[in-house]
Design brief:
With 125 residues, this protein is an all-alpha fold. It is built from 4 helices and no strands. Helices cover 78% and strands 0% of the residues.
Length: 125
């Protein structure tokens, strides 16, 4: 006789395939771009447009290595979300839905996000 009790799933032990990880990172990056991203962007824009002193203060903030690291992380959030969004648009149009194509496109999204982030980070630093 089978038990009607719910099964305990340890989410830390479940290994997801790469397309599922890319999908999860797409959702997380979108949420992080929305909540802390938009208010911080608007705050920086407000600082730079208010006065020349605010612009100089904003430039002095950008020299900090900690802030540069946060900008690079935010840049990766944006680029990953961008490339994964293109991938999901293609999947919605029924391109790349086969297993091997989905795995390949997931690898390409991950690689493109990291490569473009590193290229822009080198230019920024």
């Amino acid at each position: 006789m089978q038990s009607k009790r719910p099964k305990y799933l340890n989410l830390m032990e479940i290994r997801q395939p790469l397309p599922a990880v890319i999908s999860l990172l797409h959702r997380i990056s979108g949420a992080l771009l929305f909540f802390p991203g938009i208010p911080l962007l608007l705050c920086g824009l407000d600082m730079t447009l208010n006065s020349p002193q605010g612009y100089a203060q904003f430039q002095s903030l950008l020299i900090s290595p900690l802030l540069k690291g946060m900008l690079i992380l935010s840049l990766w959030f944006f680029l990953h979300h961008f490339f994964a969004g293109i991938r999901f648009l293609a999947l919605d149009m029924h391109y790349g839905g086969a297993l091997e194509q989905a795995r390949f496109s997931s690898k390409m999204v991950l690689a493109a996000g990291i490569i473009f982030t590193l290229l822009i980070a080198v230019l920024m630093w």
